[in-house]
Amino acid sequence: MGIILADVGGTNARFALSSQGDPSLRHVTYLRCADFESFQDAFEGFMARLPVDERNDNHKLSLAVAGPVNDRIVKVSNNPWQFGKEQLLDRLRLDGLLVINDFTAQALAQHDINKEGRVRLLDGIADASAPLLVIGPGTGLGVSALFPLGQGALPIEGEGGNIRFAPQTDPERDLCAYMERQADHVVVEHFVSGPGLENIYSFLADAAGAESSLSAEIIAASALREEGICRDAVNMMIGILGAVMADHVLTMGCWGGAVIAGGIMPRLTPLIASSPFEQRFRSAGEMTSVLARVPVWMATDPDAGLKGARAAFANPHLAHRMLLR
Predict the structure, then answer these.
(1) Kind plus residue range of the DSSP H or E element containing 271
(2) CB 237 within 8 Å of CB 200
(3) pLDDT in tens, 1-50
(4) HSE of 25 in the Cβ direction (CA atoms, 13 Å)?
(5) What is the maximal distance between C-alpha atoms in the chain?
(6) How far apart are CA 241 and CA 125, in angstroms?
(7) By the number of CB atoms within 10 A of the CB, which of 1, 51, 82, 308 ranks highest?
(8) How far apart are the first and last CA of the chain?
(9) 320-324 — which CB contacts under 8 Å span 24+ positions?
């Protein structure tokens, strides 16, 4: 029997097919969420693209979604889509439905740090018995951790992108004050995400009297080409990311290392070495020597979320989540 895989974020919905006993992906399809009114519409759009014989042989769905997924009604973060799990199971005529957080899927895709699909950013000594942090800026900031256990890795779901922002430098304190004029509750993903990069750029541009509104794509492209406000904004975001990663590593004891995933960071990899990232990640007072041993990788596989959704389907720690009709 086939398995339908989906990875839904604030901007894109990715789909693929797989088969029980075969982890490979077939018919990988990327759709823009803005082109569809609901997940059901996007799902049906994907199914309509499949060969007829494939449409009739896939009856279980493993769905990775940005945002909290424990409730019966799931609201996608940074996206107007929402759905009821039982209603989705019925309307899509599925035999089974598994719904997980999108960064749970990203974490499950990173269970073997020796596989291809990632590059090392910072050296260290990974403790294979300790958790692995997986974090990544996209439309929001996703955070998860993977705990190694004898019966398969245990993914930890959370909303780490929504922890309170803790500025540590004078420019960051000014940035936080700037954001407080626009939001009642300033959180990390206000600055470590695609929209977060836009917020940082606007803050710096306002101070410099420059054009104060650019898209994350334009900011990133300009930062890669030349010095200026765009590169300053990228460096500031990457520095904040390093500090946030250090906090999460220390909180969950992720001595197994940290993997950066998500949509925006792979494009900015050439700027990381000259950014404050390493200094901000390694510096933590008495814990500096501990963080000095933690390796960091960049995930480069664009289909990692789908592969993680596939891994979730076979993970024993998530079996209780499966809804059956």
Answers:
(1) helix 265-272
(2) yes
(3) 689 999 998 889 999 999 877 778 999 999 999 999 999 999 999 999 99
(4) 21
(5) 61
(6) 21
(7) 308
(8) 15
(9) 321/98, 321/99, 321/100, 322/96, 322/97, 322/98, 323/85, 323/86, 323/89, 323/96, 323/97, 323/98, 324/95, 324/96
CATH topology of domain 2-106+303-324: Nucleotidyltransferase; domain 5 (3.30.420)
- Between CA 142 and CA 161 the distance in angstroms is 6
Q: Report the C-alpha gap between 33 and 7 in whole angstroms.
A: 11
Number of Cβ atoms within 10 Å of the Cβ of 103: 32
**Cβ-based neighbours of 13, under 8 Å, separated by 6 or more:** 6, 7, 30, 31, 32, 33, 36, 39, 42
In this structure, what token pair is assigned to residue 146? 């993977």
CATH architecture of 113-300: 3-Layer(aba) Sandwich (3.40)
Alpha-carbon distance values, 61 to 16, 39, 77, 264, 303 (Å) = 10, 12, 20, 27, 16
By the 10 Å C-beta count (0-12 exposed, 13-18 middle, 19+ buried), 115 is classed as exposed
**pTM for the full predicted model:** 0.90
Question: Kind of pairing, strands 296-299 and 258-260?
Answer: parallel
Domain boundaries, the chain: 2-106+303-324, 113-300
DSSP 216: H
Provide the token pair at 25.
Answer: 């992906």
> In whole angstroms, what is the distance from residue 197 CA to residue 217 CA?
10
Spans of the chain, pLDDT less than 50: none
